[in-house]
Amino acid sequence: MKAMDETGLKLCRAQAELFVSSITLTDCSSAVFLRRFMNSSAAKRMDSGSYLFESSTDASVIAEIEEEFGKSGYGKVKFSENEMYWMGYLYRYWCYTYEKTSRQVYRIIKPPELRELFYPYHTLDVAAAVERILEAKNGREEDLTKRGVEILRRISNERKTAPVA
Length: 165
Known about the structure:
Layout: H1 6-25, H2 30-38, H3 41-48, H4 58-69, H5 81-98, H6 102-108, H7 111-116, H8 118-121, H9 126-161
Helix pairs in contact: 1-4, 1-5, 5-6, 5-9
């Protein structure tokens, strides 16, 4: 795990502010914007840290995302500014400290699920919020893994005991 430093904090703030700007600068829902951003070339530049050396505005980044994925008016549900800021900050903090790409973190937790965690987790330290999310996700993954192993064992045992034709 990588320690948070000044570069990471700047990236967290930049992404959080971009997410807030998306509320007024896009026609699509917040969830659609977040999906597009987390899979965009702009997110890749944030992942590498090169984003900080650009002279881009939130509007230009959003225009770039719309050019990359096409303009969309799909969905109308906009998250609040507080929710968007927290999500932007948390997603980037997670990517930076755990050295994961935006796409990898997006696969772990999608915006609607993260939004449900806003009220219980937004007052926590961001590191603690990420740890709790990971604990909850790992718990589910372990349960699925255990279940999968049990199914494979049952199938294997059925094959061993099945009569040969």
